[in-house]
Design goal:
Family: Belongs to the MreD family.
CATH topology: Arp2/3 complex 21 kDa subunit ARPC3
InterPro entries: Cell_shape_determining_MreD
Structural class: mainly alpha
Order of helices and strands: HHHHHHH
Helix content: over 70%
Keywords: Cell membrane, Cell shape, Membrane, Transmembrane, Transmembrane helix
Distance between the termini: 22 Å
GO biological process, one term: regulation of cell shape
Number of domains: 1
CATH architecture: Orthogonal Bundle
Number of helices: 7
Number of strands: 0
Largest sheet: none
Strand content: under 5%
Subcellular location: Cell membrane
CATH class: Mainly Alpha
Mean pLDDT: 82
Length: about 180
């Protein structure tokens, strides 16, 4: 596998998650809150590939989320990129290599992402539907991020390593499942 095929896989994963969010989960609500696979995707990519890839994926996922939301363009990008970066940073530096740790990081990342988005929206003086259902959104999005990490981390790690050969070095490449 050459470098170009590796760099094709990350955008493919981003498009896959965005497609799932917009098609299947677009109509699904839990207590009036939509599950956020885009934030979960930024978290999973941060877990797999580290802080830089998590930040880039979070930025792209945020742009996709902003294109369908009623908040100013770039707000979700700021939040998702920050969460993707922080998850990659925490996972690389201090957490043990285990599925439980990845799920816990995803749960906390999802909850912090919702809280950070709420803070940014309030600083900008905006009123959204998230404000009215903040506690429900916090629980739903955190749970979705945790559940998605159970499926997404092994699946996307497999996709990235599919046909592995001269893949660019990753901070996460030495981990075992």
């Amino acid at each position: 596998m050459n470098r170009s095929s590796y760099y094709f896989k990350l955008p493919f994963i981003i498009l896959l998650i965005a497609g799932l969010q917009r098609s299947q989960l677009g109509t699904l609500t839990i207590q009036g809150v939509h599950p956020d696979l885009l934030l979960a995707g930024a978290i999973v990519i941060g877990l797999i590939e580290g802080r830089e890839a998590g930040a880039i994926a979070g930025f792209v996922f945020g742009l996709i989320a902003d294109s369908f939301a009623s908040i100013p363009f770039g707000v979700s990008s700021l939040v998702y990129a920050t969460i993707g970066y922080c998850v990659g940073l925490v996972e690389v530096t201090s957490m043990p290599d285990s599925l439980i740790a990845e799920v816990l990081i995803s749960l906390v990342g999802g909850a912090v992402g919702v809280a950070f988005l709420e803070v940014v929206v309030r600083i900008l003086g905006l009123k959204t539907t998230l404000s009215a259902k903040f506690s429900v959104a916090l629980i739903v999005v955190a749970a979705v991020c945790g559940i998605f990490s159970l499926i997404g981390v092994p699946l996307f790690r497999w996709l990235i390593n599919l046909g592995s050969g001269d893949r660019p070095p990753s901070r996460r490449s030495s981990r075992s499942l």
